[in-house]
Specification:
- This is Dihydrolipoyl dehydrogenase.
- Belongs to the class-I pyridine nucleotide-disulfide oxidoreductase family.
- Its EC number is 1.8.1.4.
- The protein folds into three domains: about 220 residues, FAD/NAD(P)-binding domain (3-Layer(bba) Sandwich), CATH 3.50.50; about 110 residues, FAD/NAD(P)-binding domain, CATH 3.50.50; about 110 residues, FAD/NAD-linked reductase, C-terminal dimerisation domain (Enolase-like, domain 1).
- It is built from 13 helices and 22 strands.
- Strands 1, 2, 3, 4, 5, 6 and 17 form a seven-stranded mixed sheet that branches. It has a five-stranded parallel sheet with strand order 8-15-9-10-11.
- The structure holds flavin-adenine dinucleotide and 1,4-dihydronicotinamide adenine dinucleotide.
Length: about 475
């Protein structure tokens, strides 16, 4: 087997596998090393996203939403479902099958693009005159060399001090996606993206869910109006979300977990649950990479330091995705992967962090791109705001899902779109129009003048654009 390459990519998550494919498309000889194994010990490329992140969580969100609709939502459509029963093993097996299809899809793409995939754990061995030596241990142990290296090793869940993940009672995202039965009482620490998505899955399947969040504000990164509506909807669904708490200790017994905490008023409380998900953010994966062998070290927060172009301080070594600064999102990792591959070939791509969309796949879905209203106010920027509720959208009424709104923010003088915030049906798909518009520096009026098909949810985007000039037609 070939051992010398133009480029080695460490990690086959969305950052690494996409970087490897793009580099190969551009004519480089590429090896991509990944440590993830499936249940049979075989390779499982795709990283956190494919194996225990984006893909399995969306599979379970879909299945659990079907279950909830069958139980509650279908009746208003005149569909009575008698004898509704949850087959959790089958639901989990489907999720696993979706994951496997994605693993296999990536292996196929490697073959198609002539990327050499190596299954094992990589660590730097040495810096050479013109390149680097990388050792692989595991299923395929070997030493490889390359002129350039991309570190795309991703991130791992952050544990609470003194409450290690056992994946039986105290769960990270990995355990939260594979519970063998629906817990009666589920605790979630951290009301971030994972807490809300996984809390929603298990609530829909029958768990009584309590979410404990340290910050006093709910979803602080989202537009405040969206966050307020989201909190109202989640509480209405039965998620018990407590803000401003301080966790004092977590103790797992034989069958239950006790969480001691001070509530927002400072009163001491104990929450007893059958399972506890801890979703308080993630930490970059650099352990075992032996960065010192090539003269690299991590920054104070454990990330591999990079400039805007994903260059590390060591020429020839790049880093992308969750292991570097910026949002921990699969599509951000992918964009950085493509950009680095193109930079290695002398091209000058650009990744605009301001147009990276955010999506939370709860019901209602939440999605945004660009600046929030509170950010514009803090920056002293003069802006116009236009909102349109799904209640006034014909398609949303036909769907029977009229929660939420689209809100557009545009510059007061130039009308350039500065941010779009959506809570409601298919927000995850609708946000793409806003990202495209912002990439093209469109004005709200540009969207307002584009013909949108009727009846579609996308008409709410057009109406929000019209509302920026106070001229909504349907509200
Ligand atoms: P990763 O996907 O973490 O991949 C890194 C890979 O490198 C892994 O396969 C790992 O095994 C491998 N690796 C690490 N060290 C080594 C080594 N030394 N040698 C060899 N291989 C190594 N993002 C979204 O955009 N949308 C979502 O819907 C979404 N949902 C999520 C749901 C959950 C539950 C979680 C946990 C995350 C979710 N994310 C989502 C975030 C997303 O998964 C990450 O941002 C994304 O996976 C980061 O990609 P990456 O390529 O940087 O790293
Ligand atoms: P997060 O950063 O989204 O949320 C963590 C939450 O935990 C925050 O609200 C934080 O204030 C809170 N917290 C931190 N310490 C705490 C403590 N001691 N006690 C109580 N609360 C505490 O992180 P999360 O949910 O773990 O997800 C990690 C990353 O994965 C996210 O940043 C996101 O980028 C990515 N992700 C993306 C998804 C998507 O795009 N739909 C889905 C899931 C994850």
């Amino acid at each position: 087997m070939q051992t010398q390459f133009d480029l080695i990519v460490i990690g086959a998550g969305p950052g690494g596998y996409i970087a490897a494919i793009r580099a190969a498309q551009l004519g480089l000889s590429v090896a991509c090393i990944d440590a993830w194994s499936n249940a049979k010990g075989g390779p499982a490329p795709g990283g956190t996203c494919t194996n225990v992140g984006c893909i399995p969580s969306k599979a379970l969100l879909q299945s659990s939403e079907h279950y909830e609709h069958a139980g509650h939502g279908f009746a208003e459509h005149g569909i009575d479902v008698a004898g509704l029963k949850l087959d959790l093993p089958r639901m989990l097996a489907r999720k696993e099958q979706v994951v496997r299809q994605n693993n296999e899809g990536i292996l196929y793409l490697f073959k198609k693009n002539k990327v050499q995939f190596v299954h094992g754990r990589a660590s730097f061995a040495a810096k050479l005159d013109a390149g680097f030596e990388v050792d692989v241990t595991g299923p395929e142990s070997k030493r490889l060399t390359a002129k350039q290296v991309i570190i795309a090793t991703g991130s791992s869940p952050r544990a609470l001090p003194d409450a290690a993940f056992d994946e039986k009672l105290i769960l990270s995202n990995t355990g939260a996606l594979a519970l063998g039965e629906v817990p009666k009482r589920l605790g979630v620490i951290g009301a971030g993206v994972i807490g809300l998505e996984m809390g929603s899955v298990w609530r829909r399947l029958g768990a009584q869910v309590t979410v404990l969040e340290a910050l006093p504000d709910f979803l602080g990164a989202a537009d405040a109006q969206v966050a307020k509506e989201a909190l109202k909807q989640f509480k209405k669904q039965g998620l018990d979300i407590q803000l401003g708490v301080k966790i004092a200790g977590v103790k797992a017994g034989a069958k239950v977990v006790n969480v001691r905490y001070a509530d927002a008023q400072g009163a001491e409380q104990t929450l007893t649950v059958d399972r506890l998900i801890v979703s308080i953010g993630r930490v970059p994966n650099t352990e075992g990479l032996n960065l010192g062998a090539v003269g690299l070290s991590t920054d104070a927060r454990g990330f591999v330091p990079v400039d805007h172009d994903c260059k590390t301080p060591v020429p020839g070594i790049w880093a992308i995705g969750d292991v570097v600064r910026g949002p921990m999102l699969a599509h951000k990792a992918e964009e950085e992967g493509v950009a680095v591959a193109e930079r290695i070939q002398g091209q000058k791509p650009h990744v605009d962090f301001n147009t990276v969309p955010w999506v939370i796949y709860t019901a209602p879905e939440i999605a945004w791109v660009g600046q929030t209203e509170q950010q514009l106010k803090a920056a002293g920027r003069a802006y116009k705001a236009g909102s349109f509720p799904f209640l006034a959208n014909g398609r949303a009424r036909a769907l029977g899902d009229t929660t939420g709104f689209v809100k557009m923010l545009s510059d007061a003088a130039t009308d350039e779109i500065l941010g779009v915030h959506i809570i409601g049906p298919m927000a995850s798909e609708l946000i793409a129009e806003a990202a495209v518009a912002m990439e093209f520096k469109a004005a709200a009026e540009d969207i307002a003048r584009i013909c949108h098909a009727h009846p579609t949810l996308s008409e709410a985007m057009k109406e929000a654009a019209l509302a920026c000039d106070g001229r909504s037609l349907n509200f």
